[in-house]
Amino acid sequence: EKGGFPSFMDKEIHDQPQAVADTLLGRMDPSGRLVLDEMRIDESLLKSIDKIIVIACGTAAYAGQVAKYAIEHWCRIPVEVELAHEFRYRDPIVTEKTLVVAISQSGETMDTIMAVRHARQQGAKVIAICNTFGSTIPRESDAALYTHAGPEIAVASTKAFLSQIVACYLLGLYLAQLRGNKFQDEIRMILGELQQIPAKIQRILDETAQQVTDLAIAQKDTESVLFLGRHVGYPVAMEGALKLKELAYIHAEGFAAGELKHGPIALIDEGKLVFIVVPSKRGRDSLHAKVVSNIQEVRARGARTVVIAEEGDEEVRAYASDVIYVPASPTLMAPLLTTVPLQIFAMELATVKGLDVDQPRNLAKSVTVE
Ligand code: M6R
């Protein structure tokens, strides 16, 4: 069942082009209009919402953080992203005009289930973004938008994460379409960009995985790794760090690159391994320049810099110990690509350390206790 791969995780990383393609499948009519049949929430209500709160845990919450940038940009609706277990125990402002989006691969995460119940009790409508048909979270929600990633067996989430981002983007575009925030041809163009993602992931798997594996082998004795990113690269950095903690049991932290000088830069010393997720230069020149100067800052203090950048970005080379290139894509699509080398790095580092990548210690695939 591992399809010839040494682990489920390895297989699931390789399933990602298909997972993204399947999550997009059948969601557009011939005229290019987005059709989300599952969205059984009254359209007038969806038009009137004034806030979105995403609730989730772990990797699913990072998918929500990525989606926040896209949904706010496309729909001009404020989006809060909150860990489900935190949401529940404060006094969140939830009204009938709040749309709650619960993201969960398993649909059985108790923290998220309890947060869904809490939100609905207060009159919010809840949409579940879920990978497991008929599980508790979609059953208890007002509507469900399924990710079609296929079963995810490895404890560390990979293909579910990318599918969750895609599903959130579909939701964001659907709301934009419904509310008239975006013209139809713009929506069609964004969907067209999403449709190019599977082939681009495949190229990373075919052309870049070996470089990342070699790097992981060379770094097998590393004790601490930092990940930096800005904008959508920030949740990607946190996801890269989580993968490494879960699988290789080494200290790893993801930071917003702009936060470096406010404290974390004190952690940098000679040889410290730092991954930096660099945004595309096209369109967001200032963002790119800021991240390049962050690379310089850590490099000047002796860090070993592993830069994840877009093909053709020659500027980063001067400050990079290693550059891992991913295919070019618009800024909001980049997480669907830049995450992949980080997943491979964590898996290969755990493998070279002789660890069980599918069943890391102390973890369960679905966390059914609070
Ligand atoms: O099944 P869920 O998506 O609700 O699970 C949420 C988290 O427990 C999960 O993403 C966890 O963080 C993974 N082990 C990450 O790899």
Rg over CA atoms? 20 Å
Helix-strand string? HHHEHEHEHEHEHHHHEHEEHEEH
Identify every distinct bound molecule in the structure, by name, code or SMILES: 5-amino-5-deoxy-1-O-phosphono-D-mannitol
Ends apart, CA distance between termini:
31 Å
Shape: globular
Helix/strand/pairing category: alpha/beta
Number of helices: 14
Helix amount: 40-55%
What is the count of β-strands? 10
Q: Strands of the largest sheet, in order across it?
A: 2-1-3-4-5
Q: Please summarize the sheet with the most strands.
A: 5 strands, parallel
Task: Detail the poorly predicted runs.
Answer: none
- Name the beta content range: 15-25%
Give the mean pLDDT: 94
Which terms would index this structure?
repeat; glutamine amidotransferase; transferase; Glutamine--fructose-6-phosphate aminotransferase [isomerizing]; 5-stranded parallel β-sheet; alpha/beta; EC 2.6.1.16; 14 helices; 370 residues
